[in-house]
C-alpha cells in the first residue's frame, strides 16, 4: 500500500473509531456489543475501503447488519472530515483473526507441555551439542 492509501486508511479508521466510541452510530445492534475497527484496506484508486471489524458481546452478524445499515451515515461523516474528490465506498467485513488466534491458543494450551519441562529439554539438547 502506498503512502497516500495508507494515510487515507488511517484517517478513515480514526473517524469510524471515534464515531463508535462517542456512540454516534445509534443502531442498537451496534451499541449493544463492543465493536472495534481492526484494519482498513484501501483500493489503489481510493474508491473502496474494506473495513475489518471485531465484535464482542453480541452476535457478530447482528452487529454487521447494524453497520451495513449505518453505512451511508458513516460515509457521509467521512466525506465531511476528509477532503477527497470522492468518498470511498465502505465494505464491512468481519475480522476473524482474533477468533483464529484464540483457537490457536486453545490448541497450544491443550498440548499440556509445562513451561519448565520445555525449557529443560532445550537446555539439555544445547549441552549435548557442545
Largest sheet: 3 strands, mixed
Query: In percent, how much strand structure appears in the residues?
Result: 15-25%
**What's the order of the H and E elements?**
HHEEHHEHH
Provide the domain count. Answer: 2
Determine the fraction of residues in helical runs and give it as a percent range.
55-70%
* Class inferred from helices and paired strands: alpha+beta
Radius of gyration: 21 Å
Enter the CATH topology name of the largest domain. Answer: GMP Synthetase, Chain A, domain 3
Distance between the termini: 46 Å
Are there runs of 5+ residues with pLDDT below 50, and where? Answer: none
For the residues shown, what is the average pLDDT? 86
Q: Which term fits the overall shape?
A: globular
For the record, the CATH class of the largest domain is Alpha Beta
Question: Can you characterise this structure?
Answer:
It contains six helices and three strands, in the order ααββααβαα. Helix 1 (3-22) packs across helix 4 (71-81). It has two domains: 3-95, GMP Synthetase, Chain A, domain 3; 97-130, no CATH class. A three-stranded mixed β-sheet has the order 1-2-3, covered by helices on one side. The protein starts with a helix and ends with a helix. It is globular, with a radius of gyration of 21 Å. The mean pLDDT is 86. It is an alpha+beta fold and 130 residues long. Helix content is 57%, strand content 18%.
Name some characteristics of this structure.
130 residues; alpha+beta; GMP Synthetase, Chain A, domain 3; 2 domains; 6 helices
What does the secondary structure layout of this molecule look like, with pairings?
Blueprint (H helix, E strand, L loop, with lengths): L2 H20 L5 H4 L2 E9 L5 E9 L3 H10 L1 H11 L7 E6 L2 H14 L4 H15 L1
Parallel strand pairs: 2-3
Antiparallel strand pairs: 1-2
Amino acid at each position: 500500500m502506498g503512502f497516500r492509501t495508507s494515510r487515507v486508511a488511517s484517517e478513515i479508521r480514526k473517524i469510524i473509531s471515534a464515531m463508535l466510541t462517542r456512540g454516534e452510530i445509534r443502531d442498537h445492534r451496534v451499541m449493544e456489543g463492543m465493536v472495534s475497527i481492526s484494519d482498513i484496506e484501501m483500493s489503489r484508486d481510493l474508491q473502496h475501503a474494506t473495513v475489518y471489524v471485531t465484535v464482542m458481546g453480541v452476535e457478530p452478524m447482528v452487529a454487521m447488519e447494524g453497520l451495513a445499515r449505518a453505512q451511508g451515515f458513516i460515509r457521509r461523516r467521512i466525506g465531511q472530515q476528509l477532503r477527497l474528490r470522492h468518498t470511498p465506498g465502505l465494505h464491512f467485513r468481519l475480522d476473524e483473526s482474533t477468533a483464529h488466534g484464540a483457537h490457536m491458543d486453545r490448541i497450544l494450551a491443550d498440548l499440556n507441555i509445562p513451561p519448565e519441562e520445555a525449557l529443560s529439554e532445550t537446555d539439555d539438547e544445547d549441552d549435548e551439542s557442545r
